[in-house]
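Lecture notes, unit on protein representations.

Consider one protein chain, 224 amino acids long.
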Amino acid sequence: MTPRRALALVVLGALLPGCTREISNPFASFETRCASLPPATYEVVATPLEFQEDDGVGIAELTTKSGSSLARHRTYGLTTANFGQQTETELRLVEQRATGRTCATPHVIVRLSMQPVVVYVARELAADACQHDVTREHELKHVAVNREALEDATRALHRDLATAMGTSVLQGSSGSAIAHQYESALRDYLGAFMREQHRALEARQAEVDSADEYARVSNACRAG
């Protein structure tokens, strides 16, 4: 049957417990101290994509990993990846102790990652060097798409995050209230962002798995 590549991709998200740092100057007014807070800052970084190779898994197990069954087709090559983000937040706070009034600015670091990426070629192809190499070559196209998608997502988030979350001084009745509201909004935004990136990546991977590409992989090692 036609060698089939499937992408198993899991969207992961983690917002690490935020921390707060109080900015205090007892000789200045609340408004003055709020105005002197450091500006909101946002950083987006990507973990460089690396991949592992595993030629020790059989066709039956790879087919199961791909989410299909042997009754439908056989999977000779498979690439899996975990596309996720981890976020660290810090709020720089000024609190008016008599009233509880609080202002704050955030410092946010978002780390995007595709790790781990694993490229599988079925162990049954070990005896067929040509088909093994052609299947591996196909899988590496998906690795390249993963890498491009990670880079594109990093650029997009770097471009849009500050605008989406705002750079003005946050105001609230307490530090905990500001943290809860801000981190909830950040979690919602990043969740929607990652879901959209997932959809875009699936579409890009589907373009690699074209009918012409399947035909090429199937026929590459046939004798003329």
